[in-house]
Amino acid sequence: MKSESAWHFDGDLKQALVTAARLIVETEGAAALSLRALARATGVSAMAPYHHFKDRAALVAAVAAAGFDQLYSDKIAALAAAPGDPAQRIVAGSIAYVRFVVDHPELYRLMKSPELSDRAAHPDLAAAAARPGASLYAMLLDLAAADRLHGVSPIVAGEIMWAMVHGIGTLSIDAYLAEPEALASAGAAALLAGWGAL
Length: 198
Fold this sequence. Notes:
With 198 residues, this protein is mainly alpha-helical. The protein has helices spanning 13-28, 35-42, 56-81, 86-103, 105-111, 123-145, 154-173, 180-194. The protein folds into two domains: 1-53, Arc Repressor Mutant, subunit A (Orthogonal Bundle); 63-194, Tetracycline Repressor, domain 2, CATH 1.10.357.10. The N and C termini lie far apart (46 Å).
């Protein structure tokens, strides 16, 4: 972890605190995250984090939102590099999702933590968490509009896809599965083929 003297805030203390909090989560786990630990890690006063986060729940929500922002960014980059066909882009997005989980296990556990299940209490988190799924739903709508999605609605197909990548990712970081990206690719392709999209 960075030493206290290594943190330079450049006028945006809140963002620096979120970045430092994420580092704590990724290196020590979510249980190690507290406003006081964050103050110690960044070398600010014990009360400074409270000016930006009213409590630990608000801090955790901000870290989770940052995680979803990166997940979405990673997914969009993967989609941009994939062929233009929606089905192929869904496969690429599935691989990117699982890769994110594997690369950021503690952050992902925090993002999906039951303590954040009430998204209505954290509007910024709710908005960030919705973006990855919305991009998937848009591609499934494109397939449905082209009569390439049979026997399932775009909403249900999206839920099945999300369950698959979430399951592969979490089983992988719990050491139950190997080669998660290959499984994500094969699983997404199998589902899409079964629905008539491939």
